[in-house]
Amino acid sequence: MRIVVLAGGIGGARFLRGLKQAAPDADITVIGNTGDDIHLFGLKVCPDLDTVMYTLGGGIHEEQGWGRAGETFAVKEELAAYGVGPEWFGLGDRDVATHIVRTQMLGAGYPLSAVTEALCKRWEPGVRLLPMTDDRVETHVVVDTGEGRKAVHFQEYWVGLRAEPTAHAVVPVGAEQAAPAPGVLEAVAAADVVLFPPSNPVVSIGTILAVPGVREAIADAGVPVVGLSPLIGGAPVRGMADKVLAAIGVESTAAAVAAHYGSGLLDGWLVDASDAEAVPEVERVGIRCRAVPLLMSDTAATAAMARAALELAEEVRA
Ligand code: GDP
Ligand code: CA
């Protein structure tokens, strides 16, 4: 079975760990979000790709969900001593090595997809990890400041400002001119099923779908497309997805997110067992829906979610 998964960071990575356990023989291709990427201190940082790579490769800081286990912050402290910021970005020493290798390879002319493949030789994530594009795409968020509105980099909004200022728009800058990375469209065309993990619908999955050709390829693949809600009881399980959903005019409910993807894209949708009343609402818009526990409390619980998604895909296929 060939499975294609569109993934952001923590939500995507944790789901993938469960999926690998649920479908050990499957051939899994991950299309990773690169809209969160940022250039810091001359280094190219790809937070979502790294979260997937570290999580599946056993290098993740488990409790935090991002960054390296056993991390130290000497580089960050030394930069701060020089007064060089941003101070809000948690750049760890071990993590810096990844960014140095990536930046060096990009500088030598390798595309991000080749660099990601090279980094994965060390981490052996057990999936094929592809960036959504080799081109530069940067998500910007239009926020209220004291002196009117301005656009800031997604990382500044999310990490630096903790999504506190009201967001009015989310713009994947560069997406319109971007091309899917080599292998992305081919993987979708060859897939038996496409899964949307409980990743952020706006700044993770929404950004991947904004790369021209990706949404169309998924809609036209003629295979079941099944997603899992990142919202439980009308709120994100962690993070601030409700803020960016509000910015694009989507209500923070499992049903509203399904309707936002739409029946043209999505065939099946899983909501949490506590959101069972959303099932008929989702089915009314033409998306098959089931309510099952959606808390990724451990790998076994997450594997059960992945099995439920694959079962729903089989139902859709039949
Ligand atoms: P990010 O790039 O690190 O923000 O990660 P993703 O975009 O992949 O995933 C973020 C989303 O995962 C958030 O909107 C959370 O609500 C969702 N999430 C995190 N943990 C869980 C969980 O245990 N269950 C569900 N259903 N969603 C979760
Ligand atoms: Ca992210």
Automatic annotation (TrEMBL):
InterPro entries: CofD, CofD-like_dom_sf, FbiA/CofD. One of its GO terms (molecular function) is magnesium ion binding. 7,8-didemethyl-8-hydroxy-5-deazariboflavin binds at residue 50. Its EC number is 2.7.8.28. SUPFAM superfamilies: CofD-like. Homodimer. Its cofactor is Mg(2+). Catalyzes the transfer of the phosphoenolpyruvate moiety from enoylpyruvoyl-2-diphospho-5'-guanosine (EPPG) to 7,8-didemethyl-8-hydroxy-5-deazariboflavin (FO) with the formation of dehydro coenzyme F420-0 and GMP. It catalyses: enolpyruvoyl-2-diphospho-5'-guanosine + 7,8-didemethyl-8-hydroxy-5-deazariboflavin = dehydro coenzyme F420-0 + GMP + H(+). Pathway: Cofactor biosynthesis; coenzyme F420 biosynthesis. Keywords: Magnesium, Transferase. The gene is fbiA. CDD domains: CofD_like. One of its GO terms (biological process) is F420-0 metabolic process. Pfam families: CofD (PF01933). It comes from Streptomyces chumphonensis. Signal peptide: none annotated. This is Phosphoenolpyruvate transferase.
